[in-house]
Amino acid sequence: MRIAPTITLTDELAKQLKQWSRGRSTSVRLTQRAKIVLLAAADEENKDIAIIRDYHFDRMETRIDPEKFQQVFLNLIFNAIQSIEGKGAITIRADLDETDFLRIAIVDSGKGIPKDIMDKIFNPFFTTKEQGTGLGMAISKKIVEAHGGSIDVASEVGRGTEFSIILPLPR
Fold first, then answer.
1. In the prediction, which pLDDT does 28 show?
2. What is the DSSP annotation of 34-100?
3. Pick the CATH number of 3-168 from 3.30.565.10, 3.40.630.30, 3.40.50.10950, 3.20.20.140
4. Is the pTM above the cut of 0.85?
5. How many CB atoms within 10 Å of residue 57?
């Protein structure tokens, strides 16, 4: 009987439900701790994944809650790790677009998302994972939107997925 993993999953589900329903008020960086967690996750799944940073500015300031956005980035990158079978790459790209918005993209070389489920991935409780809660993407979208931003996805089966986060810059 596997009680401990079930309790852990139930605790995590309760925590995520609380965060999703509450959508706390908000006030870009991937911390070293987050990077270590991601690399450990890739290693645990026996994958050879390169994490590529492609930033097009020296320093950028925007009004975000760093803890909330760490959760968004961890969720997107962890999903990317899970989508890659064996060897692959995840690119984290950040730049300013022509309308003075910050654009952050998480691009993976994974298996891609089938078109028939693309419009469901941000729905609460939708998951394709055996151990998933279906709340990670819904919470991520809510966090981004609470900061006045948007999150979009483009994917091609067999080629990979790109999640793009657009955030307004302070004036």
1. 43
2. HHHHHHHHHHHTT-EEEEEEEE-SS-------HHHHHHHHHHHHHHHHHH--SEEEEEEEEEE-TTS
3. 3.30.565.10
4. no
5. 9
